[in-house]
Amino acid sequence: MPFSEAEVQSARGAWEKIYVDAEDNGTAVLVRMFTEHPDTKSYFTHFKGMDSAEEMKQSDQVRGHGKRVFTAINDMVQHLDNTEAFLGILNPLGQKHATQIKVDPKNFRIICDIILQLMEEKFGGDCKASFEKVTNEICTHLNNVYKEAGW
């Protein structure tokens, strides 16, 4: 997973732009995921009855989960230069989603792609490009955790 110092700084700079407004941007990512991939709502019993994007945007549960997603990614971004610490955050998260929540691992690629789309829309292609390796690492390591968990 080695990131060069330049990659770490570039990725952190890109992430800081979107993380500044973690709750709204996290909410936007989830609303887009639930709208474009409605099957992803099936893991959230308290989101299932929400049909409109506006209703989801106003939901405290959606907003709270969006912020939790962004906070977890932020914790990982802070450890891009320390593989052990990065995996120390990512592996338990993957274990929980694989064994307790039983989220299909393809959904991590979906949410990462939506984060990259939002970065590009708000801050341009350079911002997206600076963060792509991070999302690839997250998805690769989560897939490994899922394989170890028997998926």
UniProtKB/TrEMBL annotation:
Record's signal peptide: none
A single MF term (Gene Ontology): oxygen carrier activity
A Pfam family it matches: Globin
Reactions accelerated catalytically: H2O2 + AH2 = A + 2 H2O; Fe(II)-heme b-[protein] + nitric oxide + O2 = Fe(III)-heme b-[protein] + nitrate; 2 superoxide + 2 H(+) = H2O2 + O2; Fe(III)-heme b-[protein] + nitric oxide + H2O = Fe(II)-heme b-[protein] + nitrite + 2 H(+)
Enzyme class: oxidoreductase
Coiled-coil residues: none
Gene3D superfamilies recorded: Globins
Domain Globin: 2-147
Superkingdom per UniProt: Eukaryota
Keywords in alphabetical order: Heme, Iron, Metal-binding, Oxygen transport, Transport
InterPro entries: Globin, Globin-like_sf, Globin/Proto, Globin_lamprey/hagfish
Keyword presence, Protein transport: no
Keyword Iron attributed: yes
SUPFAM superfamilies on file: Globin-like
EC code(s) of this entry: 1.15.1.1
Sequence similarity: Belongs to the globin family.
Name of the protein: superoxide dismutase
